[in-house]
User: Fold this.
Amino acid sequence: MADAFDLVVIGSGPGGYVAAIRAGQLGLKTAIVEREALGGVCLNWGCIPTKALLKSGEVYEQLGHLGDYGLAAEGRSYDFAKVVERSRKVAKQLSAGVAFLMKKNKIEVVDGTARLQAATPAPRVVVELKAGGARTLTARSVILATGARARVIPAVGLAADGDRVWTYREAMVPRAAPQSLLVVGSGAIGIEFASFYRALGAEVTVLEALPRILPVEDEEISAAAHKAFEKRGLKFHVGAKVTGLTKTRTGVAITFEADGKAETLEAERAIVAVGIDGNVEGLGLEDLGVKIDRGHVVVDSDGATNVAGLYAIGDVVGPPWLAHKASHEGVACVEHIAGFAGAHIAAPIPGCTYSTPQVASVGLTEAQAKEKGLQVKVGRFPFRANGKAIAAGETEGLVKTVFDGATGALVGAHMIGGEVTEMIQGFALAMTLEATEQEIMATVFPHPTMSEAMHEAALDAFGRVLHI
Ligand code: NAD
Assistant:
């Protein structure tokens, strides 16, 4: 006898567990299947524990600059095991929080590995239980929220060995912090770990195949980030195509080609952060004939796959691979399943990198806006002209706005600086509400705050900047 549900969600990351909560709120009898820990990569091996590590790194680095604030303390040191322990404790706390939320919303958690079998009105979910045995769940709808994992390129040695070559997972829990580190890839993962280990004093070199670091960001922000990170002692090789990663007697060696020349660098450890691949294997998707394109499940704007009753959300459906995108899609998908008309609101998705300084953006870069043929108006404001930033000693960075001059619509915003990941939401909200340039300029920003740089960057686009 199979257990019957309205909805079965496979995967409990920020896509799956949020979808399940929304389903619970809407009165759907819901089960969620998880093979590891509740909260998925984000809570257990991604967003959250890395923020705990980065905080330790930031505090430690700041201790090295106490003199800038008229302060002094004797010496500084860290206990790496305790830094890691704190990060794991934070992850555990959040995962337990998800368990509580599941209970509160009357969602049944099934611990095990799910596999789909053809059935109507939706595929059947057969779960190999962690506790042993199997359980079959039937439902009117099934949502796949199985996430993604670190991409590896074994042909050139870009694959974790758990010892000297790490993906984000191993990089979060090593026994000791390396003295020297090579990071392959300068996306959010590469840059965040580079920033963390540099803060603890490691010699860190980042290799990026494309011509600039953080290549998805606006070019000016990439350039400002490059400069700011170099000031902190990080080293970069851009346009560097890695051709081989091998182990040496004590560490690793990476060979790469840049400017037509082959070079080799050695370090104690290496982190591979060259993107991620969707978790589409072992689910029985091939047998069902689910359409997959380059490792990601193909869905429509409601999250529906080509198989009746089967939906997919989050990382497994492709970029941007971000937790908040997964949650947004999860809610929209469940509301569609529950019969809400027009559930899907296409909202701009902000992106954040929690390095020192931080990087955050939403919408189109200046180059993308130009490519679209928009009559682009750009505004800029540096934090070195912002009172709060000067008082806080956080003058590095800038805010850049991109407007469509023809309509006055804000089409993109890009920031680098102290707490910009907390500030980008202001621009995301303005874009979601389709604010005009007049409305943004007429908004009152509190003084003194770093957010005033956002106001000034909007004013600057229309020749009205005040404090520069
Ligand atoms: P990414 O795709 O963002 O960056 C990978 C980088 O590696 C790219 O710049 C690419 O050009 C480079 N690269 C690829 N192959 C290479 C090679 N052989 N040699 C040198 N460089 C090479 O991927 P990521 O940083 O691994 O992150 C994966 C996903 O997770 C991203 O979509 C990211 O947005 C998301 N993520 C987000 C956050 C955050 O929001 N703070 C944090 C971590 C991860």
